[in-house]
Structure formats: structure tokens, C-alpha cells
Amino acid sequence: MKKIILLLTYFTFIQIGYSQDYVDIVKFSTNNTTLGNIQEANQTNANKNFETSVNNVNFELYYPKKLSEKLVLLTGLTAENTRLNLSKGADRTSLTMTRLNLGFKYQHSEKWSGTYVLLPKIASDFNAIGSNDFQIGALAVLDYQYSESYKIKFGMYSSTENHGSTLTPLIGMWHRSKNNKFYINATLPIRMDANYSLTKNLSIGSDLLTSIKSYNLSEFKSNFYVQEESIRFALYTALGLMDNSLILRGKVGLDTTDYGVFNANEKVGVQVLTFPLSGDKRNRLNAEFDSSLYVGFDAIYRFDLTKNK
Question: Which residues contact 219 (CB under 8 A, 6 or more apart)?
């Protein structure tokens, strides 16, 4: 069911898009929810009625540097931590991902530009770092300037994971209304942000965040891993401070994140979005998580490029 939701989300927002008329230099996010397991007929009594609080914290730091009229160096750091119980009776697990963002943006012509980023990362419970904790991803996106108020993008994201290789096709379109009140900015199906300004400093909006990644469980001598398939959709109210350079958001939304535990030697090969090309014959070791409401908070330090044109 979660795979169907992710696919529907991808096509539902396919007309929404992405652009970069600002740079979020620093972003801190925290989300909290309580997830239970999906009740199945063949589920043992030991796994029924299981609930766990899930605490997620994300930190992003970006530093773009202009090297020439056509070339911009892109560097950054992303760190994320999620704490939860993976099954009934299990100790609380801390899943951590740290990633470097290393790449560049190049202006190919008046209308076309490209963004190319290498994404090496460590993802595990960080009890004992080993080779299974290291993964690497890559992002390539072409940007077409359709008009002053519209941009469209096409690209691909790929990553090596404990469960195999993931391929994610990307498509986007950015738009800002003439009165600057309505704004959409997304890279789909990875993320989307749409908002409407009520006043100069107050806005309402919605955002979508999805991810497919894995964590090595080194506390069990690398015999297991967690595959995370995450979809979080939220409505928010945002307050802009310091001439809208500092943005504070309060959020409430739906979290459909699932955390599946598998043996380290069981993989699915190449996977497009959440769909394995050769099928999934793995034996899952914990129950599937159900969706739930979540609350969150974002603090963003934003640099508006339009003010410096």
C-alpha cells in the first residue's frame, strides 16, 4: 500500500516544480509521531498492538560558491537521526545518516543549466562503523528557463543501499505569481513546498518530503539492516523574521514512514522508486508500520537571490 501511495504522490504533484531563486543556507527540522503496526490476519499476538514513538531530527548546511559566470561550486552537509523501537520488546534504536553534498551547477546556455552532485554517506546505528555503513548517491538535473515565472526540470537520482540500488526519476516545475504571494518549489518525488503569503511575514503552506534509504545495524554485527521508505506530507504556518531571512514553521501532517528489518544477505537488486525490477523475495523480520499524524517544527536561514539581482 505504501508503494502505491508513493507512486500516486509522484504523479499527483507532477505539475508542481522546482527552482532556486533562494538558497536555504541552514535548515533544522524536528518531527514527532507515534507509529503502530498494521494488523494482519497471520500476525502473532506478540506483534499485535505494537506502538512506538518516533523522533526525527534533520540538519542541513549548504555553501554555494560562484567560481565564474557559468560555474557555481555546491558543497554541503546533511545529518539526520531517527529514534524508535523497531519491533515489540526491542530496545530503542538510533538510526543516523551523515552525508556530504559535493557538486556544481553549470550554465550550459541561456535557457539550459545543469546541476550535478555526488552524495557519499554513512548510514547506520553508529555502534561500530564498517564497510556496510558506507553508501554513495549521485544527482543530475537539467533546468530549462521557460519564462521569468516558470522553470521546468528533468533529472535522475541514484544511490547504492544495503537492499540494492535505487533509481529515482525527477521532474519539476517552479512558479511564482506576479504579485509574489503564491509560490511553488519542488523536486519530485523527493520534495515539494507550496505556500501563500497572508502578510509580509506570515504565510501558510504545505510541504512533501519523501526518501528511500537504508541503515546498517552494526550492533548486531552487521547481520541486519533497516530499509526506510518515508512519505511525510504536512500543512504549516510560517513566520518570517529578520526581513524573512529567518523562517520558523509549525507543522502538522501525515507520516507514512515504514522501517523494515531484513537480513544483510537479502537484497532486491535494482529498485525504481519503491518497486524492485526483479521482485522482492526477502523475509521481513518485523511488522509493517501504519501511517499516523505527526507534528513538526522547522527553522530555516534563507538567502534570497532575487534581492541581489
Answer: 125, 127, 128
The alpha helices in the chain, defined as continuous H runs, are 2-12
Return the CATH number of the domain spanning residue range 2-308: 2.40.160
Q: Is 54 helix (H, G, I), strand (E, B) or coil?
A: strand
Q: Is 275 helix (H, G, I), strand (E, B) or coil?
A: strand
Mapped onto helix, strand or coil, the DSSP state of residue 12 is helix
Torsion of CA 31, 218, 76, 193, to 10 degrees: -30
Q: Residue 165 corresponds to which cell in the numbers above?
A: 540500488
Q: What angle do CA 77, 82, 85 make, to 5 degrees?
A: 160
What single-letter DSSP state applies at residue 267?
Answer: -
Rounded to whole angstroms, the Cα distance separating 168 from 190 reads 9
276-303 pLDDT, tens digit each: 888 899 999 999 999 999 999 999 998 8
Q: Is the dihedral of CA 143, 144, 145, 146 positive or negative?
A: negative
CA distance 35 to 105: 39
Predicted pLDDT at 79: 98
Cell reading at 261 = 528489518
Provide the residue ranges of all domains of the chain, joining segments of one domain with +.
2-308
- Helix, strand, coil percentages (3-state) for the chain, rounded to 5, are 5, 65, 30
Q: Which residues contact 82 (CB under 8 A, 6 or more apart)?
A: 54, 55, 56, 57, 94, 95, 96, 228
Residue 79, number of CB atoms within 10 A of its CB: 15
Side-chain-side CA neighbours of residue 64 (13 Å):
19
The beta strand positions in 146-223, using DSSP E, are: 150-161, 164-176, 182-187, 191-197, 202-217
pLDDT of residue 307: 52
Q: Read off the DSSP letter of residue 168.
A: E
Cell matching residue 75: 558543497
C-alpha triplet 204, 205, 210: angle, nearest 5° = 150
> Whole-model pTM?
0.87
- Which residue stretches of the chain have pLDDT < 50? 1, 3-20, 41, 308-309
